[in-house]
Amino acid sequence: MTAVAPTIASGQRVEAKPEKRKGTGAWARRAPLLPALLFTIVVTQIPFILTVVYSFQSWNLVRPGSQHFVGFQNYADVFADSQFRGAMLNTVVLTVVCVFVALLLGLGLALLLDRKFLGRGVVRTLLITPFLILPAAGALLWKTTMFDPTYGLLNFVFGGETDWLSEFPLASVMAQIVWQWTPFMMLLILAGLQSQPKDVLEAAQVDGAGRWRTFASITLPHLSRYLQLSVLLGAIYIVNSFDAIFLMTQGGPGTASTNLPYYIYQRAFQGFDIGQSSAMGVIVVVLTLIVATFALRLMFRAFDVSKGVVK
Amino acid sequence: MRRRLGPASLTTATWVVAILFVFPLIWMVLTAFKQEADAYTDPPRIAFTPTLDQFASIFERGFLPYLGNSAFVTILSTLIVLLLGVPAAYALSLAPVPKTSNVLGFFLSTKMLPVVAAIIPLYVISQRTQLLDNVWALVILYTAMNLPLAIWMMRSFFLEVPTEMIEAGRVDGASLPTLLYRVILPVVAPGIAATALICVIFSWTEFFYAVNLTAARAGTVPVFLVGFITSEGLYWAQLSAAALLASLPVMIVGWIAQNHLVRGLSMGAVK
């Protein structure tokens, strides 16, 4: 019973109303939910409200007593800040490129794994492992053993004395992130491939459809929900990328590989500018909300949340 | 006409691609057992005498407290997630509360909000409540981080309980606690275990909160690794050993849970 089974009639699947019970009955139903709900509201919403409050203040931690209301001044400063715009552009580039490349590689690996062969379990286990090692460990590992100009394996294989991290900082960080996230994409797509109805595939074979034809007209449409989900979840995580940048390039050289999470971190924890970094946080939230509203709708449509909410 | 790629050559190709893909990891494992002098040579050295020296020096560098913090935070936050999440998932699946999809949407939306936007108030709050560099701050935050994911995932397991079983139990006059314990729990128990493993993976690997809200006393394993940026390039073998040790618990958990990884990573949306 996967939640992904095509539910064309999902529009009609209105959430069935729970039986009406009065007084204590209704509360008995809600009681199991409330602790989790209250906890989540308190821990996740209060910080965001405070971020908004701080964003209207001039407040630098190294200047005690500097805290006062300044209206939209922080926002004006942030929008005038070319480094902020650069960080924003880097975030978009990094997210789009990493999601796209990881998705393609993940699809390729998933297709390779979607057959019976000797040692399939071992190969799958190997392939998911980059996702399982600590991202911090992965970042340091790539920084040293792969990218080092003198002893790195990349230069050993390709020759030359390239200093990858200073010559191609953003691309190097992206390579590591893609490596880390490809297994994630692969796993989701593989789940999609293996949930294909076998009879339809066999029917296609009987009808004489070639491999490519079968892939394009049956597999790909079936996979689309899985691909959407992979893009959505991958983007949520990759937009927040911090470990790789912090550990590999420190956003540099200059600001060449600074993304928004790293820039906000820098302004807050190295510049101690609470007001401005909060304003940036709010801007990021607003942008994310716009994308997320769209994404949430997609997610609910793709996975028909009301399903099963009956009886 | 072009010949189709035979199954044998496709299998070989798959193996080659897989090994190339995980080569950085294989190299890390090899390096962890090298002496520093063997770790960075040009060209890279494949033959060497393996040693456990690097693992010993990791513990000399004070790895143990970090490991302890990670274990404490991970286990405790996972337990709290289950304590809060299992009843909530039940309330959102088998005994649905009104506006179930709104509640689910709310939980999901908290996963979509960027963590950077919360870190500043969290820092200020922790500072004022003496929770800065305190493991409890991480316990609370990791619980909040994993709870939505766990609720979504466990809900999908609850929805798999055959309704006939519940009906049959009701007809036999079983009370709700009996039903929960005898009928529902046995079916969802493996799902709860899988959810717990996913929470363990995410808590163990979390970096952003840990690095910003902890330091010497409450640092977790990823924070220990940060200590290597200053001495990068100098202690490759030691770094590899640390990276391996730090990742090993999660690697093992992930290998065990691999059949459930998909469901966890997709918040239960995909089996």
Give the secondary structure arrangement, pairings included.
The complex is a heterodimer of chains A (311) and B (271).
Chain A: H1 24-30, H2 34-55, E1 57-58, E2 68-69, H3 73-80, H4 82-113, H5 120-132, H6 135-146, H7 153-158, H8 164-167, H9 169-194, H10 198-206, H11 211-239, H12 243-248, H13 260-269, H14 274-303
Antiparallel strand pairs in A: 1-2
Chain B: H1 7-21, H2 23-32, H3 36-39, H4 53-60, H5 63-91, H6 100-112, H7 116-128, H8 135-158, H9 163-171, H10 176-205, H11 208-213, H12 221-226, H13 236-256, H14 258-265
How does this structure look, described?
The complex is a heterodimer of chains A (311) and B (271). Chain A has 311 residues and is mainly alpha-helical. Helix content of chain A is 69%, strand content 1%. Chain A contains 14 helices and 2 strands, in the order ααββαααααααααααα. Chain A has a two-stranded antiparallel sheet with strand order 1-2. In chain A, helix 6 crosses helix 9 and helix 11 runs antiparallel to helix 14. The longest helix of chain A has 32 residues. The two termini of chain A are 17 Å apart. Chain B starts with 6 loop residues before the first helix and ends in a 6-residue tail after the last helix. Chain B is 72% helix and 0% strand. In chain B, helix 10 packs antiparallel against helix 13. The mean pLDDT of chain B is 90. Chain B is built from 14 helices and no strands. Chain B is mostly helical and 271 residues long. At the A-B interface, helix 2, helix 4, helix 5, helix 6 and helix 9 of A face helix 1, helix 2, helix 5, helix 6 and helix 7 of B.
